[in-house]
């Protein structure tokens, strides 16, 4: 069982936020250490059990004593523990998902957004906390999943692992993405689109819905509708946000 299958979305989010507070401790390393200590699956209930002493020992090893500084200030450790408990993460809470069954929205596509907070497009492909997954038709939109990237960063090739998370999507939006990473996304069948300026995902979706009325050949094949051209829309979208 992989780590991504052995923790709740909320637990993954809390660990990612806590790892940010501790210099030199990546999220992948923290999730591995916590899993070794608490066992799988990792849940919010288990994270609530972690104390400052536990976190100090996770960082310094089992021989850390009560006064061991481990290169991290006590207040920083306390702050990280509070995040693991779920305190102070209101601005990064996972948004509420919409009910969806495959086939609910005929003529729709699946779209991913690199995100760190709420329903915001505010993440870079290689560092975002999660991908928000929407099912989008010209007349309807549903948020069907929020996929944490924490476990992907523990893989040998994190970009391949992140691309695999959105392999069922036709389009993925992010603030930025490197060339090699973009190539790996394209290999999954998803079309990467960069929008450097952060903003609400729903604003982007509104414009996409208008463009879906005249899709390009690759998108038309997925939707089963006559092909047109969406290339100009994509170019204009990126140019507008970079301005």
3D structure, described in words:
Helices cover 40% and strands 14% of the residues. The protein is of the alpha/beta class. It folds into two domains: 3-92, DNA polymerase, domain 1, CATH 1.10.150; 109-242, 2-Layer Sandwich (Nucleotidyltransferase, domain 5). A hairpin with a 4-residue loop joins strand 3 and strand 4. The longest helix has 13 residues, at 9-21.
Secondary structure elements and their pairing?
Layout: H1 9-21, H2 27-38, H3 44-47, H4 52-60, H5 74-85, E1 109-115, E2 120-121, E3 130-136, E4 141-148, H6 158-165, E5 171-174, H7 179-187, E6 191-194, E7 199-200, H8 201-211, H9 217-223, H10 231-242
Parallel strand pairs: 1-5, 5-6
Antiparallel strand pairs: 1-3, 2-7, 3-4
| Class from secondary-structure proportions | alpha/beta
Q: Could you give the order of the helices and strands?
A: HHHHHEEEEHEHEEHHH
Average the pLDDT over all residues and give the rounded result. Answer: 81
Q: Report the principal-axis shape.
A: elongated
CA distance, first residue to last residue: 45 Å
**Uncertain residue segments:** 63-69
Let me know the CATH homologous superfamily of the largest domain. Dinitrogenase iron-molybdenum cofactor biosynthesis domain
**CATH-scheme architecture of the largest domain:** 2-Layer Sandwich
Q: Report the sheet-strand fraction.
A: 5-15%
- Which CATH top level class of the largest domain fits? Alpha Beta
Q: What's the β-strand tally?
A: 7
Question: Helix amount, in percent?
Answer: 25-40%
Q: How many domains make up the 3D coordinates? A: 2
How would you write the strand order of the largest sheet?
A: 4-3-1-5-6
- Total helical segments: 10
């Amino acid at each position: 069982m992989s780590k991504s299958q052995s923790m709740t979305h909320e637990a993954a989010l809390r660990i990612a936020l806590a790892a940010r507070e501790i210099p030199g401790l990546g999220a992948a390393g923290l999730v591995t250490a916590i899993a070794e200590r608490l066992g799988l699956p990792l849940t919010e209930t288990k994270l609530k059990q972690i104390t400052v002493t536990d976190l100090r020992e996770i960082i310094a090893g089992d021989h850390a004593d009560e006064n061991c500084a481990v290169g991290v200030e006590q207040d920083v450790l306390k702050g990280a523990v509070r995040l693991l408990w779920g305190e102070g993460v209101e601005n990064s809470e996972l948004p509420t998902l919409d009910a969806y069954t495959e086939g609910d929205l005929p003529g729709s596509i699946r779209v991913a957004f690199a995100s760190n907070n709420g329903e915001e497009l505010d993440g870079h492909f290689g560092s975002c906390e999660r991908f928000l997954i929407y099912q989008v038709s010209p007349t309807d939109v549903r948020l069907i999943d929020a996929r944490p990237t924490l476990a992907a960063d523990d893989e040998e090739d994190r970009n391949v692992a992140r691309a695999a998370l959105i392999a069922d999507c036709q389009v993925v939006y992010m603030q930025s993405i490197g060339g090699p990473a973009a190539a790996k996304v394209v290999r999954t069948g998803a079309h990467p689109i960069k929008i450097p300026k952060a903003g609400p995902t729903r604003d982007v979706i509104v414009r996409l819905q208008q463009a879906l009325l005249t899709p390009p050949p690759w998108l038309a094949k997925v939707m089963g509708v006559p092909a047109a051209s969406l290339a100009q829309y994509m170019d204009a979208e990126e140019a507008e946000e970079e301005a």
